[in-house]
Amino acid sequence: MAENATLYRAVLDNLYEGVYFLDRQRKIVFWNKGAERITGYPAAEVLGRSCADNILCHVDKKGRSLCRNSCPAAEVLEDGQRRESEVYLLHKSGYRKPVRIRVAPIEGPSGSISGVMEIFSDDSSPESLRQRVALLEKLATLDGLTELPNRRSMEATIAFRLAETKRYDVTFGILFIDIDHFKSVNDTHGHAIGDRTLQLVASTLTRSLRPFDICCRWGGEEFLAVLLNVDERHLAVVAERVRALIAQTRIPLENDYLSVTASIGGTLVRTDDSVTMVVERADQMMYQSKINGRNRVSLDID
Prior knowledge:
single chain; alpha+beta; Alpha-Beta Plaits; 2 domains; five-stranded antiparallel β-sheet; five-stranded mixed β-sheet; 10 helices; elongated
């Protein structure tokens, strides 16, 4: 029997998850190595203590204390039903840590409940962290409203394309697109309609470009597009198509719809360009379109 107990302890100590046993008085009678690793508490500091002492200070997602109120372990001792939950424990070093807990009853020889076993896994595990990192990377490169690449992402894309241009003598074009009278849209119809306008223009813009072209929300009501492998004629054709399709966009209102237009400036990249230079040149052309009456295209082409 002693050999079996040693074997079982070794198995439990090698689990990635934390495991601890409570007796009927909710005193901790077993604490495995996984529990030590996840909580920071060595077994010597918790064995013999009651979980009701609020050692781990479990709280739910709303910050409500569980150890002295709706304790899953106490509930399992009461009715013998298994429970599972996502909670936050207080690590010994002082920070809150998300864990998934599973609590099951332990039956004695007579079939009565002699205690409970709680298994808890670290929700900040490497896989969980990788998923969060991937989400953060996505949030760092996408505009939250339109789900287009954001300005930082586009600046990196243009820098990469400029390096290609200088190395392989391939060219690309830039379109700077600004929605006309956007402030009056917000002032007249509210920011919800303004946001919807940005989303619909972004959708129209995406669908008016080729699959390998890239567009982003540059900021506010401004968008930027990078058109790959274009010459003067193709740049003009694509720019005009973008303008015309945006002008056909309809934003539904309560009893009507709202039409929008955009002023567009465009340029082909030059071998001595920097990101700032090529964007500013396209921006200047966009302002030329504004000066000339809006809802038009102006191109700076050598």
